[in-house]
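Q: Structure tokens for this one, please.
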Amino acid sequence: MASLLGRITRRISSELAASLGVWIRRVDGTVAKRTLPQFANKPRNLTIELPRRISNPKSIVIGDDVWLGPNSFLSAVMEYPGLAILPGERRIPTRKFTPRICIGHRVTCTGSLLIGAVQDVMIEDDVLIASNVTILDHQHGYQNASEPYKYQPLGRIAPVLIRRGTWIGQNVVILSGVTIGELAIIGANSVVTHSIPDRCIAVGAPAKVTKFWDEQTQNWISSRDG
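A: Here is the predicted structure, written as tokens:
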């Protein structure tokens, strides 16, 4: 009898825990949708899961049916250095920017997406992004090795464009001035420092094309065989 009661209790506890988990997720999803900031446009069916951080949302355009997982940080940088960088009474010239982040329709990301823009980052429609991806249109300055780098002016500022239907793998870093071509694939852990053509697979640090799509054979062909 005790054994039977124990099994019943464990089953009830398991079912209650599962139901509670579903309820919490629904509540969290509702809160996430209702607390979205005001963007430059009015996207339909937008989900950016909690927790999240969004800086200067009126400089951000987002398409319809976009889903971004938790821990995403969208930062349209209006000035640098900002309050988070400057300590106390330190006086450093501040540079103003007019940034834009544009995310197309039906873009999805697993989570932990970091986009930092002082000029322009554009992600076209139907892009698939894995977790922990960083996209930057600028870099910290390092002209003076006697001064902490976080106080130096930003440099290498250039737009980033990720074309339609691209797949960005986990832990990828995309740096300033890069265009990733239509329906390209960037392998996990890659660092993209130069532009990648359409319908190619690129991997490595720095990322290099390893395969391309052959329209005639309808197959991926090694770049060494091309």
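A few notes: The mean pLDDT is 90. The domain at 39-222 is CATH 2.160.10.10 (UDP N-Acetylglucosamine Acyltransferase; domain 1).
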